[in-house]
Amino acid sequence: SHGAFLLNPANDAIAMAKVLEKVGFEVESYTDADQKTVKMAMDQFGAKLENYEVGLFYYAGHGIQVNGNNYIVPVDANLYMENDVEYDCVEVGRILGKMEDSGCETNIIILDACRDNPFERRWSGRSVKTQGLAFMNAPSGSIIAYSTSPGRTASDGTGENGLYTSALLKY
């Protein structure tokens, strides 16, 4: 609500939830979530994974990197400077850790979140300019899929779904 509006993430999340349910996944879906909701959903998801062999976490929306760490930007984030990221956003490593701790054999994280930093203009002169998300090391049995190469940005697209999610939905 304080950054740049993205046209497709809610549509992407709804469409991916339908496709994943269709192929046999049990899905919990959230759109336009605030930070508290994102963190609680990650915690509940991690606890639930103990009973499954495959866990899949999908996110579409703003994502940024700060100091080599990737963050999901909840709808209530209001970042006046780079240091605010730690307090207003959710580090992607949180969900990776929850998935790893669950004992789930295969963990998949799909991040359609490599758009331009919507708060960067506010940060002028106070931060290091970074683009896209950073490469993440993942434990054995994990797959992390990005909508573009680490360090690059991806377009939101002009159709009903983003470019990356459109391809995922097609195949």
Topology, please?
Blueprint: H1 9-22, H2 35-48, E1 54-60, E2 63-66, E3 69-72, H3 85-88, E4 90-91, H4 92-101, E5 106-112, E6 142-146, H5 163-170
Parallel strand pairs: 1-5, 5-6
Antiparallel strand pairs: 2-3, 3-4
Helix pairs in contact: 1-5, 2-4
Task: Provide a descriptive summary of the structure in words.
By secondary structure, the chain is α/β, with parallel strands linked by helices. The protein is built from five helices and six strands. A three-stranded parallel β-sheet has the order 1-5-6. Strands 2-3-4 form a three-stranded antiparallel β-sheet. Strand 2 (63-66) and strand 3 (69-72) form a beta hairpin. Helix 1 runs parallel beside helix 5. The mean pLDDT is 86.
Key phrases:
globular, alpha/beta, three-stranded parallel sheet, three-stranded antiparallel sheet, 171 residues
Summarize the structure.
The protein has 171 residues and is α/β, with parallel strands linked by helices. It contains 5 helices and 6 strands.
Strand order of the largest sheet: 1-5-6
Largest sheet properties: 3 strands, parallel
Total strands: 6
Based on CA atoms alone, the radius of gyration comes out at 15 Å
